[in-house]
């Protein structure tokens, strides 16, 4: 039997792939535990500078595998425990200083919306659809949907999505700010990888710290956030990468007049 989630690292890019296409990449117990383990490993590795979250098959993620849960006779306590396992994986991604891009083709629904929201930058196909749909089965949102959806799109729009039997189109998801880009369906993964490679080719650590600061802000006072910003930029300025980039920027910013004046002054 194939692994429910695949993980690989190539040239600084950690790729986490949901791998249950026959079940629309819905989470059963094995998938949940694999998710918790792999996300923790991905953000802890020194050789991972960016993470790409994608999925096999025609759909990104349908959330929890309700049929598997029903067949397994999971109790309320068991379902809550399993949600906690998946939540720990979500927190590994959102609380880390590693930027995460998602390639979310096809349909994303239910808890899959929470998995999508664990990314920092999401790419979908132009034919993609995204929704909540929990109430269709008498269930309530989980896997960070109520924690992150309102922050992403605003409370009123979040309520529209969770209180209606609605799937957003890709264009609507971009307009709402739920995802960053909608591209041709066959270009979703390629575009997501290009975003990740942009981070890796640039000031990778700075992108990661910027992500961490933005993610942390809602839980803090303004004073706490400003103090962290000050500490973080101070620490960044001491790195060899920042010093080299600042020096290069300064050199490129000099005008021909500046250079001529410097030469004239040096010749006195």
UniProtKB/TrEMBL annotation:
Membrane-spanning ranges: none
Pfam families to which the protein is assigned, alphabetical: ECH_1 (PF00378)
InterPro entries: ClpP/crotonase-like_dom_sf, Enoyl-CoA_hydra/iso, Enoyl-CoA_hydra_C
SUPFAM superfamilies linked to this entry: ClpP/crotonase
Record family assignment: Belongs to the enoyl-CoA hydratase/isomerase family.
Designated name of the protein: Enoyl-CoA hydratase/isomerase family protein
Organism: Microbacterium terregens
């Amino acid at each position: 039997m194939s692994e429910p989630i695949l993980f690989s690292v190539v040239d600084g890019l950690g790729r986490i792939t949901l791998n249950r296409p026959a079940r629309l990449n819905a989470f059963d117990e094995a998938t949940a535990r694999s998710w918790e383990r792999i996300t923790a490993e991905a953000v802890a590795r020194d050789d991972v500078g960016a993470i790409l979250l994608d999925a096999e098959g025609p759909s990104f993620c349908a959330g929890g595998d309700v049929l598997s849960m029903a067949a397994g006779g999971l109790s309320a306590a068991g379902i809550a425990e399993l949600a906690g396992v998946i939540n720990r994986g979500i927190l590994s991604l959102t609380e880390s200083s590693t930027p995460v891009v998602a390639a979310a083709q096809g349909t994303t629904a239910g808890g899959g919306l929470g998995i999508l929201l664990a990314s920092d930058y999401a790419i979908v196909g132009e034919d993609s659809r995204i929704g909540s749909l929990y109430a269709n089965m008498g269930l309530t949102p989980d896997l960070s949907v109520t924690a992150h959806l309102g922050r992403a799109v605003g409370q009123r729009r979040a309520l529209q999505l969770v209180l209606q039997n609605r799937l957003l189109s890709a264009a609507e998801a971009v307009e709402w700010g739920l995802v960053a880009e909608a591209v041709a369906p066959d270009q979703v993964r390629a575009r997501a990888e290009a975003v990740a490679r942009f981070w890796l080719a640039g000031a990778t650590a700075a992108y990661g710290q910027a992500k961490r600061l933005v993610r942390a802000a809602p839980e803090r006072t303004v004073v706490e956030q400003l103090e962290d910003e000050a500490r973080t930029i101070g620490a960044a300025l001491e790195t060899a990468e920042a010093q080299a980039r600042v020096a290069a920027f300064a050199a490129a910013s000099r005008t021909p007049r500046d250079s001529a004046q410097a030469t004239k002054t040096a010749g006195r």
